[in-house]
Amino acid sequence: MTRISAFAIDVPDALLERARTRESSACEQLYRWFERPVYSLGVRMLGCPDAAMDMLQDTFMKVFDKLPAFRGDSPFWGWLRQIAVNECLMRLRGRGRDEPSESEPFEPDLHEHEGLLPPQAADAAALTEVLGRLPDKTRSVLWLYHAEGYTHDEIAALLGQSVSFSKSQLARGTRKLRALLQLTEDSHA
Amino acid sequence: MPDLDNAVPIGAALRALPLETPPRSAWPAVAPAVRSEARRPARWPYALATAAALALAVLLPVPGDAPMDAPADGALAGETIDLPALMQESARLERLIAAVNDDPLQPADALVLGLAFEDELAGIDAALAAAPRGSRDANELWQQRVDVLSRYAALQSSRRLLASAGQPFETTLVALH
Fold first, then answer.
1. Mutate which of B3, B5, B24, B30 to disrupt the A interface (most A C-beta within 10 Å)?
2. Cβ separation of B15 and A3 shorter than 8 Å?
3. If exposure means fewest CB atoms within 10 Å of the residue's CB, which of B3, B13, B20, B138 is most exposed?
4. b vs e for A80-107, b when ≥16 Cβ sit within 10 Å of the residue's Cβ?
5. Closest CA to A25 of B66, B21, B62, B101
6. Contact residues on chain A for B101, CB-CB shorter than 8 A
């Protein structure tokens, strides 16, 4: 399956070189290109515009601080995205309580048809609303896996949990989304 | 799932969500850190060596400067702000200034004036960080940012022009005053 992240923007080497030397206009251009992908990631993972705004600012502070150490052996957008994801995870760790953990019973794997959501999912507002009702960590696993293309191994490493935990959260989140969207659809029928 | 014909794969549904737009730009809060890191190594020695020139230099009029009593947002009255155009102009002027500033042998008074401009920009950026995007305040602040950058660009262009003609910049400023 081809997954295209909103972060996947090719940045010219010349622009990166100028940004490495802290040339303000080059840094500003990078900010403008990646502002919405970073903020959107924050909203999806943190579920709160204010927290996403803080995360947006801190992410770019770190990006420009660490940019001289960026070696360029991977795409710049992937490097920047990882900083943004780490910023989100750091904030999620600070919340902690009431979040799913390894001690929960694992959710059975999804059947193939369970990867399909009710038609209501095509309504961006409805999907955004029900996403916001999932636990932060569950929503983050869904987003990192489906929208950003992370593997379960990568998500497990990021969360400091097992691969089984990542798969379990994906299954649980998907079933919850289906149920919530179905409820929404039924209530509009 | 009764309606399988219209069912949506979860991955496609999530990826199809539109990007969110922040309520305000974080750039004004990030920019001062970028600028302070960029100028820190080169400018401290100059600033220390030219402390005596500071008081004189910041009071001098800048070639191409607007009158001091003209309101910075005077052009806004009754006009529609084209925010993307202002942002582009801001970036263009910053590129121009960066290109002109790429000169390790700038006279001390030009460096000190540059610091004064950058302090003014930092003040505007700090206000922008607090202004909701699209608000009248934010639009006016972007206009002010472009105005300040225009004056700064005019200053640096004048300096380079005078330098190419072999004339010292600080003498000319005093003569203009």
1. B30
2. yes
3. B3
4. bbebbbebbbebbeeeeeeebeeeeeeb
5. B101
6. none
| CA-closest candidate to residue A159, choices A186, A184, A141 | A141
Helix segments in A47-148, DSSP class H = 49-66, 76-95, 124-131, 136-142
Q: Which one of A35, A39, A117 has the shortest CB-CB distance to B13?
A: A117
Cβ neighbours around A128 below 10 Å, total: 14
The verdict on B42 touching A (C-beta cutoff 8 Å) is no
> Among all chains, which residue has been given the structure tokens 């760790």?
A93
Per-residue pLDDT of chain A (189 residues; tens, 9 = 90+): 455 799 999 999 999 999 999 899 999 999 999 999 999 999 999 999 999 999 999 999 999 999 999 988 899 999 999 999 999 999 998 776 556 666 677 777 777 777 788 888 889 999 999 999 999 999 999 999 999 999 999 999 998 889 999 999 999 999 999 999 887 666 665
Q: By the CB < 8 Å criterion, does B176 face chain A?
A: no
Instruction: Search chain A and give the residue with CA nearest B2.
Output: A118
The kind and range of the H/E element at A116 are: strand A116-117
- A46-62 pLDDT, tens digit each: 999 999 999 999 999 99
CA distances from A30 to A20, B88, B102 (A): 11, 13, 21
pLDDT computed for residue B83 by the predictor: 76
At residue B41, the pLDDT reads 46
| Spatial CB neighbours of A23, under 8 Å, sequence gap ≥ 6 | B38, B95, B98
Three-state DSSP class for residue B9: strand
The confidence band for B3, taking pLDDT boundaries of 50, 70 and 90, is: low
Residue A60 has its nearest CB partner, among B18, B19, B30, at B30
Cβ <8 Å between A24 and B29: no
Rg over alpha carbons for chain A, rounded to the nearest Å, is 18
Q: Give the Å distances, CA to CA, from A146 to A128, A170, B62, B115.
A: 15, 9, 55, 47
